[in-house]
Design goal:
Elements lengths: L1 E5 L9 E6 L4 H11 L18 H8 L7 E6 L4 E8 L4 E8 L13 H15 L9 E2 L2 H8 L4 E6 L3 E6 L5 E5 L11 H17 L11 H9 L4 H8 L5 H5 L2 H9 L3 H22 L4 H4 L5 E6 L6 H15 L4 E7 L4 H10 L14 E8 L17 H4 L10
Parallel strand pairs: 1-6, 7-10, 10-11
Antiparallel strand pairs: 1-2, 2-3, 3-4, 4-5, 7-8, 8-9, 11-12
Helix pairs in contact: 4-13, 5-10, 9-10, 10-12
Keywords: Kinase, Transferase
EC number: 2.7.1.59
Organism: Cephus cinctus (Wheat stem sawfly)
C-alpha cells in the first residue's frame, strides 16, 4: 500500500491525502474511513518503518489487475472532507463524506516546511501503521491543480482562508498568501467577515468612518452572533474565537450584496481586487508556455467565495487590467472533488499505474479575460471607487489599449 499525504504548513488551510491501496477488501476501505474520522488503530510501541523507494510497492502492483487496484484520494478542509476511491483505470468506485481535517495541518514557529512535513509523515506512520507503507507530504493546493490542469497553471483558493499556488511546466512552484488570518487571508471569507466587523468598530468609535453607511452590516452582525453591542461581540473575536464560524458571517455580507447594500458591495469589490493581486503576483513568475497557451493563463478557483463571483468580478477584472501584467487568462471551477487530483498524484508515484486522467472533464470555465477585448465592467450599484490605492493608476477610460 502506498499513500501520499498532502499538507500545507500554514494555519487554516486544508489537508489532502492521496492513498494508493493495493487491496480491494471493504474492510481496508473502512480502515481508511476510520482514519479520516480521527480514530487511529491501536499499535505497538515500535517506531514507524519507512520505505525509501517504491520498489516493494511496484512488485505488489505487478500482480494486480487494474480493476483490483484501489486509489483513495481525500479532499480535506475546514468544515468537511471527501474521500473518493477509484480503481487502477480511474473509474470512481465510491465517495464518502467526513468531518474537517484542518487540525491535521501544523503551524510551527521557527520550523522549515520540510521539518513539518517530516513530523506529519512520522505521525501517520506511527498512528496508522496499516494504512500505508509510505507517505509523501506536500502542498495541499496540488490536489486541486492536478485535478484540472495537466501542464500547470494557478490554483487560487478563496474559502475560509486564502492561498495561491503556481506550477510551471518544468515543475517549479511558487506561492502567494496562505499565511493565515493573523497576517493575511486576503480574498477569503474570513477576510470579508473581518473587514465588515472592522468597519463597524471603527465607524462607531468615530476612529475612521466606513466608506458607506453601516446600516445593514451592524444589525446583521448583531443578529448573526446574537449580541446586543460590541462588548458582547468581543468573546467571538478573542476568547471563543473560531475561524470557521467567524468566516461564515461572510454569507450575510453576500446577502447584503444581493440587496444592493453599498458597503457590502464595496467589501466584495475589494476582495476581488485582492484575489486578482494573488494572480498578478504569480503571473510574474509564470512560464511563457502558460501565458501564451489557448485561453491564456489558466486559474483554478476553489472555495465558497467564488460562488459570489458576480460581486467580486468588477474588482478582480479591473485590478487584472490595471496591472498591465496579464494579457489573457481563463478562470475555471472544478466539476469534481479535488480528491480526484489526490488520486492522480498517488498514481504518478508508481510507474506501474497507468491511470486514465480526464482533466478536461474535471473543470469548467466561467470567465475569460483578454486585454485587447476588455472595455471595462460598468457597475452603477455604488459610486465609483478607484483602484489607484492598489496600483497607482486611474480607473475608467485610461490605459484601455
Amino acid at each position: 500500500m502506498y499513500c501520499k499525504h498532502e499538507h500545507r504548513a500554514k494555519e487554516g488551510l486544508p489537508v489532502q491525502v492521496a492513498t494508493l491501496l493495493v487491496m480491494a477488501e471493504q474492510e481496508k476501505k473502512n480502515q481508511l474511513s476510520e482514519g479520516i474520522e480521527g480514530k487511529p488503530k491501536q499499535t505497538d510501541a515500535s517506531s514507524p518503518q519507512e520505505v525509501s523507494d517504491v520498489g516493494e510497492i511496484d512488485e505488489d502492483l505487478l500482480k494486480k489487475k487494474a480493476e483490483d487496484v484501489r486509489i483513495g484520494g481525500i479532499e480535506g478542509g475546514a468544515t468537511h472532507s471527501t474521500l473518493i476511491v477509484v480503481d487502477g483505470s480511474g473509474n470512481k468506485l465510491s465517495e464518502l463524506k467526513g468531518p474537517g481535517t484542518n487540525h491535521w495541518g501544523l503551524s510551527l514557529s521557527g520550523c522549515e516546511e520540510k521539518e513539518t512535513d517530516r513530523i506529519i509523515k512520522e505521525s501517520l506512520l506511527r498512528d496508522y501503521p496499516n494504512a500505508s507503507k509510505n507517505y509523501i507530504v506536500s502542498s495541499d493546493t496540488l490536489g486541486s491543480m492536478k485535478t484540472g490542469l495537466e501542464n500547470g497553471g494557478i490554483v487560487l483558493i478563496a474559502g475560509t482562508g486564502s492561498n495561491a499556488l503556481l506550477i510551471n511546466p518544468d515543475g517549479k512552484t511558487y506561492g502567494c498568501g496562505g499565511w493565515g488570518h493573523v497576517i493575511g487571508d486576503e480574498g477569503s471569507a474570513y477576510y470579508i467577515a473581518h473587514r465588515a466587523c472592522k468597519y463597524v468598530f471603527d465607524d462607531l468609535d468615530d476612529l475612521k468612518k466606513a466608506p458607506y453607511p453601516i446600516t445593514y452590516v451592524w444589525p446583521a452582525l448583531k443578529n448573526f452572533f446574537h449580541v446586543a453591542d460590541r462588548h458582547a461581540l468581543l468573546s467571538h473575536l478573542y476568547s471563543n474565537f473560531e475561524k470557521v464560524s467567524f468566516a461564515k458571517f461572510a454569507k450575510e455580507i453576500a446577502t447584503g450584496c444581493e440587496n444592493k447594500d453599498p458597503l457590502c458591495l464595496d467589501i466584495f469589490r475589494e476582495n476581488g481586487e485582492y484575489l486578482a493581486m494573488h494572480v498578478i503576483a504569480l503571473a510574474k513568475k509564470a512560464h511563457n508556455d502558460l501565458l501564451l497557451s489557448p485561453g491564456g493563463l489558466k486559474v483554478i478557483c476553489v472555495g465558497s467565495v467564488w460562488k459570489s463571483w458576480n460581486f467580486i468580478k468588477t474588482g478582480f477584472t479591473e485590478a487584472i487590467h490595471a496591472s498591465n501584467i496579464i494579457d489573457e487568462l481563463t478562470l475555471h471551477h472544478l466539476t469534481t472533488s479535488s480528491a480526484i487530483g489526490a488520486c492522480y498524484l498517488a498514481a504518478d508515484h508508481v510507474k506501474e499505474i497507468r491511470l486514465k486522467k480526464n482533466y478536461a472533464n474535471n473543470i469548467d470555465s466561467f470567465y475569460h479575460y483578454k486585454r485587447n477585448n476588455y472595455s471595462g465592467i460598468p457597475d452603477f450599484s455604488i459610486p465609483e471607487k478607484s483602484v489607484a490605492s492598489l496600483w497607482g493608476v486611474c480607473r475608467g477610460p485610461c490605459n484601455k489599449s
